[in-house]
Write a structure and sequence with these properties.
Blueprint: H1 6-20, E1 24-28, E2 34-37, E3 40-41, H2 48-54, E4 62-66, E5 72-75, H3 81-87, H4 93-99, E6 104-106, H5 110-120, E7 125-126, H6 133-143, H7 147-152, H8 156-166, H9 171-194, H10 201-214, E8 218-219, E9 224-226, E10 246-251, E11 253-254, E12 263-268, H11 275-294, H12 301-318, H13 326-332, H14 359-362, E13 390-393, E14 396-398, H15 401-409, H16 419-422, E15 430-432, E16 435-440, E17 443-446, H17 455-461
Parallel strand pairs: 1-7, 5-6
Antiparallel strand pairs: 1-4, 2-3, 4-5, 8-11, 9-10, 10-12, 13-16, 14-15, 16-17
């Protein structure tokens, strides 16, 4: 298990205690999740907030931070001899605490006594919105509240304190993220070089996993490997690749410290791009490059999304799929026939960083009203960019037959969408190009090594 220096975790906890200011904070680690019986578990993943402040990727842990005394306590149990027989020697809870600068450690059961004392003293108890059922049950039991209250009584001041820290990445975090991005790049290169007609999508997906795990990590999210790229999060991998198919691969690696990479490439199978594939691909690439050029501190990411949407609309208008004024196409939301999602998202210890803390709390600020417009409402990140933010840029074109049928029947945006021309492409699929960036004082920096992105570079890399 790799960790940052213990001072990093001490400073993070001290800052959180200062930001929350009063009361006691509970942070729960994740437990193992059984597949079909207790000891046959899914691959373990620690809670990202617990990782950020306590660094330990180990099941069966919890922690408290006293905001007034600034004391942190780590709760967990030493392994029994029965456990050692099956798992081998393990560090004690005291040894784990020493690794991360925590002087006070106790048995897991002791957290009940600490929380009861806090309740008796009428202290404010801060906890996060739980996303796992076992955490909901534990919180309800610890606090003697209902399951419903355990789901809803979370602390907004704790969320705000965590977001304030995790939003901007330190130099050591950026180095770790870049490791994840570079592994992700190797995954994509392997996929581009191996994919051939007659293979299954699952053959490519298995290669991605092989590369990710060879570095001691894992996927940062379930991979999207599909010839049906119009489905945004398509996790079905059973299709057979045919010559001329476009394969969309959206995948990333997570390092053994939990930091993520997230890249997407779309490429043809067994041949070069066709002319129409080139046209659509270049439109997406132009939008991507335009968005990247707009990245800088102070600009709202919502505006970057709209800049990219305008560039997409210009290209689609050139193909006679859209008509009218580009500004009106974007303002009304007609462009969302082709681009139904947001341009990107924050990235760090989670591939959609801190998404469990609530999109409004992380990607938006309290004064920002989330759009209800189709397409724009799916924008995960809207707030002003700041130096140290890490994010993705991933424009795309997705031609979804069901959406064509629905909007065409309703005569929606007829003044902007050329439905008769669009019908010719209803089986086209989808294209996405995604890269990861850190915001710098002067603009932005691409994270990781360059991997093929232009039409020529992609064609020179793929297996033909």
């Amino acid at each position: 298990m790799r960790l940052f220096n213990s001072k990093t975790y001490i400073q993070r906890r001290e800052q959180l205690a200062q930001d929350v200011n009063e009361g006691i904070i509970i942070l729960l680690g994740n437990n193992e999740a059984p597949m079909n019986y207790k000891d046959n578990t899914y691959p373990y993943r620690q809670d990202s907030t617990f990782l950020y402040f306590f660094g330990l990727s180990k099941a069966g842990l919890a922690a408290t931070i006293d905001c007034e005394s600034n004391e942190s306590v780590l709760y967990g149990d030493d392994p029994t001899i029965d456990e050692i027989v099956w798992t081998g020697p393990q560090k004690s809870i005291d040894e784990h605490g020493e690794m991360i600068g925590v002087k006070m450690t106790r048995s897991f059961q002791s957290i009940y006594d600490i929380i009861k004392q806090a309740i008796d003293r009428k202290r404010t108890i801060h906890f996060l919105n739980p996303y796992r059922d076992d955490q909901v049950i534990l919180l309800a039991d610890l606090l003697s509240i209902s399951i419903d209250a355990a789901k809803k009584s979370f602390s907004l001041s704790l969320i705000k304190g965590i977001v304030n820290q995790r939003l901007l990445k330190s130099d050591e975090e950026i180095m770790e993220i870049e490791k994840g991005v570079n592994i992700s790049g190797e995954m994509h290169l392997a996929a581009m070089k191996m994919a051939k007609p007659g293979m299954k999508e699952q053959d490519v997906a298995s290669k991605l996993l092989e590369v990710a795990t060879s570095y001691g990590g894992y996927y940062s999210f379930p991979p999207i490997v599909t010839i049906n790229g119009e489905t945004l999060h398509n996790h079905y991998h059973g299709n057979t690749l045919k010559k001329g198919d476009l394969l969309l691969v959206d995948s990333g690696a997570e390092t053994d410290m939990g930091y993520a990479g997230d890249l997407t490439r779309t490429f043809p199978i067994g041949q070069k791009f066709t002319d129409i594939q080139k046209d659509f691909y270049q439109i997406v690439l132009n939008a991507h490059q335009t968005a990247v050029e707009a990245l800088k501190p102070g600009i709202e990411f919502r505006d970057v999304h709209l800049i990219a949407s305008k560039k997409l609309s210009e290209g689609l208008k050139d193909l006679n799929l859209l008509k009218g004024k580009v500004d009106e196409i974007v303002e009304t939301g007609a462009y969302a026939m082709f681009f139904q999602c947001g341009l990107g998202h924050l990235m760090g210890l989670d591939v959609h960083d801190m998404e469990n803390l609530g999109e409004q709390n992380v990607g938006y600020t309290p004064d920002m009203i989330k759009s209800t417009q189709f397409g724009l409402k799916s924008l995960r990140l809207s707030r002003k960019l700041e130096t140290g933010m890490v994010l993705t840029v991933e424009p795309g074109i997705y031609i979804i037959p069901s959406l064509i049928d629905l909007w065409k029947a309703d005569k929606k945006y007829e003044e902007f969408i050329n439905y008769s021309e669009l019908e010719k492409f209803r089986s086209f699929g989808g294209i996405r190009i995604e890269e990861d960036f850190v915001i710098t004082e002067g603009g932005s920096k691409l994270l990781g090594n360059e991997i093929p992105k232009t039409i020529a570079d992609v064609e020179n890399t793929i297996s033909i």
